Amino acid sequence: MTAQLIDGNALSQTLRADVAKRAAALKAQGITPGLAVVLVGDNQASQVYVRNKVKSCQDNGLHSVLEKYDATMTEAELLARVEALNNDPSIHGILVQLPLPAHIDAQKVIEAISPAKDVDGFHIASAGALMTGLPGYWPCTPYGCMKMLESIGYKLRGKHAVVIGRSNIVGKPMAMMLLQESATVTICHSATADLKAMTLQADVIVAAVGKRNVLTADMVKPGAVVIDVGMNRDEQGKLCGDVDFEGVKAVASHITPVPGGVGPMTITMLLVNTLQAAELAAAQAPAH
Ligand code: GUN
Questions:
Q1: N- or C-end of the chain: fewer Cβ atoms within 10 A?
Q2: Co-location of 109 and 144 in the same domain
Q3: Domain containing 64: what range?
């Protein structure tokens, strides 16, 4: 078997076209969806990420402001900026790029963001809403993975999904989303005794560890669906995921490539969340 690719670029194009259409409809009502991206310090990878986020907004009819601050910014100064953005009616989504410099308590900053503008879905109110099945913003990467499964018409009900990784940004929310769709979910991590015994039982595997070759062909049940969230470099410096793509694609029914898989979906879902925040704000705004 050679797995079918789930193309994150193609799916992103479709979803972004819908975002652009909805953004235009809001603009016609006099509301331009706005995202504020806050970057503190000079982390190289973060600079690339935030540039891509801002450009993607502009390409799809969203207004975006990038606030860049020196690594010496104090926690109090950053909290004051977040508060100002919470109160800015032209801003519907706030994203504080992580990691933050060590002297700033990232969780404190995240909790300062209004849940109504928490388009990253990292606030504990957002995490709690996801856990209890209430409306709220879902973290963009696992949300994008769910859209990829939906795009192939995959029915999760009664299936066994194995998530490798337990981060607050991907692994844990991913497990909650899969559970919400009535999958039986196993979360594996660095202390899991026998990872292969778990993954061999899986109908769906999401690899989100940040380490190459975490999942190899001998660990995959024939016909399983494999989603690769990893973003690593091989010895030649080439971008690769957590999955041994060449090996696993001979066993899986569907697989996401790296690059061109989950990566573009993360930004796409950020646009979707921001647009939704703007639509909700528009619905609550007094009629004029
Ligand atoms: N750093 C790496 N990924 C992300 C993300 O999705 N959101 C934020 N805010 N920071 C990140």
A1: C
A2: no
A3: 29-115
Q: What is the pTM of this model?
A: 0.97
Residue 125 placed within a domain:
no
Q: Which atom of ligand 1 is nearest to the CA of 266?
A: 6
- Nearest alpha carbon, ligand 1 atom 3: 98
> Is the shortest distance between the CB of 124 and ligand 1 below 6 Å?
no
The CA distance from 73 to 58, in Å, is 27
| Preceding omega of 259 cis (within 30 degrees of 0) | yes
Residue whose Cα lies nearest atom 7 of ligand 1: it is 97
Same domain (yes/no): 61, 96: yes
Q: Cβ(118) to ligand 1 under 6 A?
A: no
Nearest-CA neighbor of 86 among 104, 110, 62? 110
Instruction: Assess whether 147 and 239 both reside in one domain.
Output: yes
Let me know whether 169 and 97 are in one domain.
no
Same domain for 90 and 162, yes or no, is: no
CA–CA gap between residue 37 and residue 31 (Å, rounded) = 19
Same domain? 79 vs 149: no
Does ligand 1 lie within 6 Å of residue 120's CB atom?
Answer: yes
61, part of any domain: yes
Query: Considering the domain boundaries, does residue 277 fall inside one?
Result: no
161-206 per-position pLDDT tens digit: 999 999 999 999 999 999 999 999 999 999 999 999 999 999 999 9
Q: In angstroms, rounded to a whole number, what is the distance separating the alpha carbons of residues 56 and 44?
A: 19
Q: Is the CB of 140 under 6 A from ligand 1?
A: yes
Q: What is the CATH number of the domain that holds 40?
A: 3.40.50.10860
Half-sphere exposure of 249 (CA within 13 A, CB side): 13
Task: Report helix, strand and coil shares of the chain as percent, to nearest 5.
Answer: 45, 15, 40
Position 287 scores a pLDDT of 54
Question: What are the pLDDT digits (tens) for 94-117?
Answer: 999 999 999 999 999 999 999 999
